[in-house]
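Hi team,

Filling in the usual template for the complex we talked about on Friday. All components are listed, including any nucleic acid strands or ligand strings, so the model treats them as one assembly.

SUBMITTER: L.P.
PURPOSE: interface mapping
COMPONENTS: two
RESIDUES: 571
SEQUENCES:
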Amino acid sequence: MSQKSLLSASLLAAARDRLDISIPVLLVLAVLFVLLPLIPGEFILVVGTEILILGLFALSFNLIHGFMGQISFGHAAFFGLGAYTTALILQPLTAAGGLGTITFLLAILAAVPVSALGALVVGYFCVRLTGIYFAMLSMAFGELIFYVVFSWYSFTKGDDGIQGLMPPPLLKSPVVYYYFTFVVVALAAALLWRITRSPFGYTLRLLRDNPARTAFLGIDVRRVMLVNFVLAGSFAGLAGALWGPFARSVSPTLLGWAQSGVPVFMSLIGGAGYFAGPLVGSIVYTGLNSYVTRFTIYWPLTIGLVILAMVLFLPGGLLSVVDGWLKAKRRGEP
Amino acid sequence: MSDGLEVADLNAYYGTSHILFGIALEVRAGECVCLLGRNGVGKSTTLKSIMGLVAHRTGTVSFDGHDLIGLAPHQIARLGLGYAPDERLIFPDLTVRDNLEIAVKPAARAGLEPWTIERIYALFPKLAELDGRAGGYLSGGEQQMLTVGRALMGNPALLLLDEPVEGLAPVVVQELTRQIEHLKDTGLAILFAEQNLAFAARVAERAYIIEGGRVRYAGRLEDLEQQPEVKRQYLMV
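RESULT (copied from the run log):
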C-alpha cells in the first residue's frame, strides 16, 4: 500500500495555505546569494561558497532533526563519505591533468549513492531507537566510519588527507565555482522542500509528533524513518562532494564528531522548526567563523556564547523572531 | 482458520511489571463484546496488547487466522484492526476532514461497505457541521466521534474502542450509544473497554470482566444481571 493513499491532496492543500515564512526567506536569500559577488574581493566568495555547502549539509540534517524529531550526532560521516568519494575519483584525474567538466560533474554525483549506502547501513540500526539512544548510536557509527577513514592509510591517506583537488578549468575561478555551488545547492534545496511538502514529508511530522498513533493508523514507522535517514545522508553526501574541490583537499576531520556538531548548531541558530532555518544558521555560523577567526583564536568560545544566548533567549531560532514579528503585524499589533 | 479475534493465554509486561496474566477471549465476526472492569485492572493494556502497542507480550493473539504476536502495530492495523485510544490522539492542528482523510486505508477483508467521509458524516451528523474546524477546538464528545470516525476510515473488520464514553455528558453518551448500535448493524465487530455497566449492557452481547490482569467472568450480559455478587465484587455496583 502506498503512503500516498494515506495522505490526501486536500490535506496538502490545507498545509500549503498556512503561511510558511520559509518561502519568502528562501527567495530573499536566493537574491542575496546571486548578488553576493558584487562585493569586491575573493574572500567573500570563499565565505559564500562555504555558507552554501554547509547550509545544504545542515538542511539535510534537519530532515532528521526538525522533521523527524531525532538528533543525529554522526551526520558528518555521510558528508565525509561524499567528500572522500569525489576526492578519490578526482585526485588521480586532476594529477594527470585534463579533468573535464562532465567527468567532474559525474564525480560529484557519484558521492550520492555512496553516502546513501552508508546511511542505509547506519540507519538500519539507528531507526530502531529514538531520543538520546538514537543520538548516541548515530554518534558511535559516525566515529566508527571516521576511524576507518582515519586508519585505512593505503586507501584514504589517513590523517594526511587527499590534497591537490581542483575544479575543472571551466569552474576553477572562485566566482564561477561559487555560482556552480549556488545552482547545485539551490536545486538540492528545492528538492528537499518538495520532499518536506510531500505525503512522505507529512508522514515524518506525523511520526515525530506521535509514533504510536502513526503506527496504529497503519504506517510502518521504522521504514519511513529509514527512508528519511537515507535521504538525509544522500544530501549530506552531495554537500560533501562539493567540499573537496572547494577546499582543495579533504581530511578525516570532515567525518568527525566536531563536524557532526556543525549542522546541530546551525539548526539551533536558524530554527529547526523552519525549513530555511539551517540555511540561516549556516550564514550566521559560517559568517561569524570566517570573520571572528581573523581577530581571535577563541572561536569555540565565541560560538559557545552565541549558542548559549540562543538557547536562553531564542530557543526557536532566529527565524522564530521573524515569524513572530510577521504574525504580530498580520494581527495588526504595533 | 476462522474469522474474528482469538486471544489465549495473553501475558503483557511494562518493563519488569507483569500486567496481564493469561487473558483469554474471543470476538467473532460481527459481534460486539465488552471488557468490563474498574480503573487500572488491565482493560486498556489488553486492547493495546492486541493492537501491538505493548511490545512485550506473549501468548496467542490471532485475527482471521493471522498470528498477531510479533507483528508491529502498523502490520496489525493493515490486517483489519481499527483502534480508538482513550486518549483519542486526534490531530489538534488538522481539520475534522483532514483528521479523517489521513487515516484512509483499504480494507483487509472483503464484505464490509467501504467507509467514506460522507458515510462518517451520516453516522455522526455533528462532525459534518464541524467539517472545517481544527481538531483541537472540539468538545470531548466530538473528539470521541472523530476518533471513532478516524478508525473507521481505515476500513477495519474489528474495531477496538478504549472507554468510548469516558468523561462524556449523559446526553452525549446516549448519542454515542445509538451510533455504536448503528455501527453494529453494519456487520463490524467491536471490542470495547468500559467501566459503565449501563452503557455496556446497551450495546454489547457478551462481556469479560477483568480484575488484576485476569479474566474473572465471561458470559452474556443478561446472565450477569442474575449475579449481583459478581457485579459487587469486580465492578462495585
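MY TAKE: Chain B touches chain A through 25 residues (CB under 8 Å). The CA atoms of residues 112 and 186 of chain B lie 7 Å apart.

Thanks, L.
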